[in-house]
Each structure stands twice: as structure tokens, then as C-alpha cells.
Amino acid sequence: MSHSTSTSRPASMTRYGGRRLVATACAAALLCAGSLGAQSAPPWLNPYRRDAARLIRAAQADDFAYRRLAEMTDSFGARLSGTDNLRRAIAWAAETMKADGLDNVRTEPVMVPHWVRGRESGEMLEPTVQTVALLGLGGSVTTPHGGIEAEVLTVSSFDDLEARRGEARGRIVLFNVAFTSYSDTVTYRTNGARVAAQYGALASLVRSVGPIGLRTPHTGSVQYDGSQSKIPAASIAVEDANRIARLAARGRRVRMRLVLESRMEPDAESANVIAEIRGREKPDEIVLVGGHIDSWDVGSGASDDGVGCVVTWEALRLMRALGIQPRRTVRLVLWTNEENGFAGANAYAARYAAAADRHVLALEADSGVFAPAALGFSGTPAARTIVGQITTTLLARLGFTSLGPTGGGADVGPIAEAGDVPTVAYLGDTAKYFVIHHSAADTVERISAEEVSKASAAIAVMTYVIADMPERLPR
To answer: Any catalytic annotation for residue 338?
Structure first.
């Protein structure tokens, strides 16, 4: 997840008698808002109960999906755009999807940016010598040869920096901003260097965007203004940022040495990985699911977003294995370059622009799977009613009792906007997710097999029903 963060399958479906009844009940659901509680059990969902239960049982029967995630992260590790690790992971995914028996497996070429981290270090020189846990921000420019040595100016906000602008010139500016939510706090990571450069700072540091961990710095992208000079930018661990702030509050001078040898290479070849279960009646209508196969270059990208790739992929594998083939095509996309460019998402939207309005739903899994998980939705009230009924009726046994207010994600966003497509997001618990987000701690050990199976089951059922309903979701 850049901010950064699903899959389904086809097969030969149970032959339902009374399809006219399903269509009538489905239309009635559009007119009726009412409670989405599990007790309402709308009749139009009755024909889907059997296969929904089969999908859930199959997903929870073993730890297949978790083992696939471990295989992916163990074999290819971190998968930053432009790296050989990402290239090999893409090839593996395509070959493995073919072995799963999925339809129309292919890779669609995308050119992606190639940023290289290089050697980096941070060290406090005064009032004592101490190594600082540091990660350069993605896209950061390099420091001058030998690094930068300068006094640190600690600020608590952009307004605080503005008020102290006269102190910033020639210093390293540290934004020590407590984490509230990702959307509120990430602006200091993305924009801190640009703002600090306006006041003559030599470099920008940001307190890691996330709750306190175990002195684990978090990386992520930095954004520059093309009209001004670019300064090096890095993230430091929460504990180190707080220590520097406490020293400054006591009136102590804090001086640091910062070395970043990062650089940009020419754009590199990459690809989106695509597989389908072709619809049995309406193959040109698409239910889109997926996650992003790239990751940052620390940890192994297990939660962000290896698990999103696997649980959406697993939804398709389960459908294929059970012989379930919905009316519409279910398309899985593992997007490339979500973390530092969105090239994969934009390339997909451009390639399928003419078919954007034939996308019936777009589901993204890019927020981990940590319990308690939830589903979010964006779309019309009529579509929300339908998706809410699926959630609280067929997914109640998995613990889903309501539907959250926001669906979608960075990768489905461009095609969803182009086609006015309703969106769903699988949302893991953010209190756990952001502790390891974009850090060396993002490994498979943090994830449980049960959480992976639950996500696979929920996505499989949601995808199957939306892809098989007689009428498409209303816009």
C-alpha cells in the first residue's frame, strides 16, 4: 500500500431452477433500503447459499493460501519496482496461475520507475554519539559525497515549521508528528522534504508513519516539486524521533550525520499479471479483483501486499477447484508498481478504457488481513443494499456483520473512476497493519493462516455472487 494495498475463480456452477425468481428478488432489493442485519436473510440469496458454504469450507479446510504466501515471500523477498526479485515473482505467479487451471493467464507489459536505495546511515553526533534507525524514503535524492552533517531542527507540524522558518536554513528538519491515522499523518512523509526545502533545509527527516514498533523505521515515497531544489529525505524510528525531540525540548543541541546513496535508474520493464475465470453467459462483463505484487525493498512485503495478491488469487482457485463458473468473467490482476508510481494501475485503465463500463465491481485487497477485518463499499445506495445483504447473510459465519463506508483502492481506482464502477475493499485491522507497514518487520510471521483463509473465503463468496447475479450491480 502506497499511501503506499484479490482474486476470484470460475467453474461450472450449480444449476439453479427459479432463476426468474432470483432476478425478481434482486430487483426488489434495489428498491428496499432496510436493515442489513443477518436476521433479514433476503430470499434472493437462497440459491447462492450452497456454493457460498462450499467456498467457505474449502477455504478453511487447510492452510493452502498461507503456504502460498510463504512460498512467495520466502522465494522472492522484497519486490521493489525495477528489481530482479519483482521480475521473478511476476514470472512465478503467471506460471502458477496456469498450473491452477485459470483462464487467459497473461502478463501485460508496463514500464516502471527504478529507484535504488544504496548505502545509507544516520548517526547522532551531539550531544552523544548514537546510531539512528533510518530508512531513506523512496525516490529520495542522494546526499553529497561524505554525507550531510548539520544541526537538527525538530518541528511538530508544517505550521510549526512556518513559525520557525528562520531557523531552518542549513539544518536537517525533523518532522516529529505523532501518528493519528495514515491519511492524516502520511503528508509529512510525502511533502516534508518539499516544504523543508522552501526554507533552505539541507535534508528532511520524518518520524515513521505508524504506531510505535520495535525501533523499526518505515519507508515510503517522497514527493518533490520540480521547480525547486531536491533535498535528501529519510524516515527514522519513532523512538529516535522522540529522543531527539526530548533533547531539543531541554535546550540541548542535536547534531547528526546523514548518508543516503540512493539514485534513480532508467525506467525498467515490468508487467501486470492477469488471470480469469471466463463467464459462462456474460463473459464481456468483468468482476475485477486483485492486489499489488510489488513491495518496498525492506521486509518481504507479506502484508503489503503479498497477502492481498494471494487471497484474491485464492478466490479464483477455489472456484475453479469446486467447478463454480459464474455468469460473468472474474478477472484477477496482480498490479505492478503500486508503491512508487501506480504505473500498473494506470496502464490497466488505459488498456481497458473502452471496456471500463463493463466492469461490474472492482475489489481490492491492500490493507492486510489482520483481525478484526471488515469489508468496505463505495457505490450507489441501491448497490450498497445488495452488497450489504451478501455480507451480513452469506458472510455472517465469518464474523462480518456490517459493511463499511469506503471501498476500492489505489490500483482499482483508475478503472473504477473511468467506468463509474462500484468498489469493495478488504480491510484488515489498521492498528496492527501500520505497526509493520513499509518496514523490515513486514514478514509472513506476522500473519496467521486463519486470517488468510478467512479473507480468501470472504472474497471468494462476494466475488462469486456479484459475478453470478442475474442483473449487474446498479450504478
So the answer is: yes
